[in-house]
Amino acid sequence: MTQLANVNALVALSSKIPGFNYSPTTDAGGDNTASMTIRGMNSIITGPSEASLNKPLLVVDGSIFNGSINEIAMTDVESIDVLKDASSAAIYGSRSANGVIIITTKRGRSSKPTVNLDAYYGIQSWTRKPQMVTDQNEFLNRRREAMIAAGSIDPSVGLDPAQLLNAEELEVYNAGGWVDWIDEVSQNAQIQNYNLSISGNASDKVNYYLSAGYMKQDGLIVGDDYKKLTFMAKMDAKVTDWLTVGMRASYYNASNPGQIANIQSATWLSPYSHKYVRYDGYTDWYERYANGNVASPFWSSSETTSYLWTDREKKYDNLNGTGFVQIDFPFVKGLSYKFTMNAVKIRTMLICL
User: Fold this and answer.
1) Residue 99 contacts residue 88 (beta carbons within 8 Å)
2) Strands in the chain per DSSP E
3) Which helix (H) or strand (E) holds 336?
4) Is the dihedral angle over the CA atoms 79, 64, 71, 31 positive or is it negative?
5) How many Cα neighbours within 13 Å face the side chain of 302?
6) List of the chain residues with pLDDT < 70
7) How do 100-105 and 57-60 pair as beta strands?
8) pLDDT score recorded for residue 104
9) From residue 275, how far is each of 3, 180, 272 by CA, in Å?
């Protein structure tokens, strides 16, 4: 799975584990952990606010993980186990009712420091891109049929642009203009990821693993882009034959846009529209009302749904730390006690300019 260009560890599990359902995201860097399920749902969902009621418990390196799955770089993952049976209930109790996903990250293996660099670059494309009408006569004929059905024109009217188009559309038609709005709001969706790790196992006493990663993913729609920076440090030391201490720390910094171009508007806005403003000195500006009184997909109708109206960005800044002490009682073979302490700092900001 680490050889595939997956945004996070759960995406990599899709279609590989029976009963595991993780829905594809609709934006770059999406996190759908709230709606994922293992072997069906235990609770009936009545609205979006209750989607997380069926969310499985996420455990990373033996500790319950409350952060975003995007904080874990795929190249840092050693193994993933999915549980939803009596064994998970015996370990984690009622919190495991929806199942448990156990992620184990990598450790040092060699006595000498090992350096790994993983990098990839790719381009994403539409799975099913909306197919818009590209023939002018077909568009006029469909407009005519719709207007006849609505009772706006008499059935005897032919393909006369003057009677089928409004004033703004007719102006564009006479000028030979045509805009494919789906193409206009789509962008070249590039994805690139870089991860560097250093690991080792010094004299079988001290085991360490350090990693840093950077990902940039563009979505298919203009304005949809995601960037993240991750760091992880793991170390454990065998102090004596019966005492082991260790720690794991991770840092996650990410940003993605709060608003993208409106694809819904792009699917129904007339191709006979003005893409740019027609006044001298502003011809490189997007026209707000591309079709008379209909807002452009780039502007939309309000600042909460507009790509151009305001600069909105979500930022994430998370810090996660875990420390443990394990005692292996020498007088009882196989008996040990592990004390774990975990601290989490999660900060999410919505910036509007």
Assistant:
1) yes
2) 20-21, 37-38, 57-60, 63-64, 77-83, 100-105, 114-124, 189-202, 206-218, 225-238, 243-257, 312-328, 336-352
3) strand 336-352
4) positive
5) 2
6) 1-9, 12, 14-15, 24, 26, 30-34, 42-52, 258, 300-312, 351-353
7) parallel
8) 93
9) 42, 10, 9
- Asked if residue 237 lies in contact with residue 246, where contact means CB atoms within 8 angstroms, the answer is yes
Locate 50 and state its tokens: 């209750």
Rounded distance, CA 309 to CA 14, Å? 37
Q: How far apart are CA 304 and CA 310, in angstroms?
A: 8
Q: What's residue 7's pLDDT?
A: 63
Cβ-contact 133, 179 below 8 angstroms: no
What's the rounded Cα separation, in Å, for the pair 15 and 42? 21
Q: Alpha carbon of 270 to those of 165, 180, 242, 296, 310: distances in Å?
A: 10, 9, 74, 10, 25
What type of residue sits at position 60? V
Nearest to 62 by CA among 111, 16, 107, 2: 107
Token readout for 190 is: 């590039």
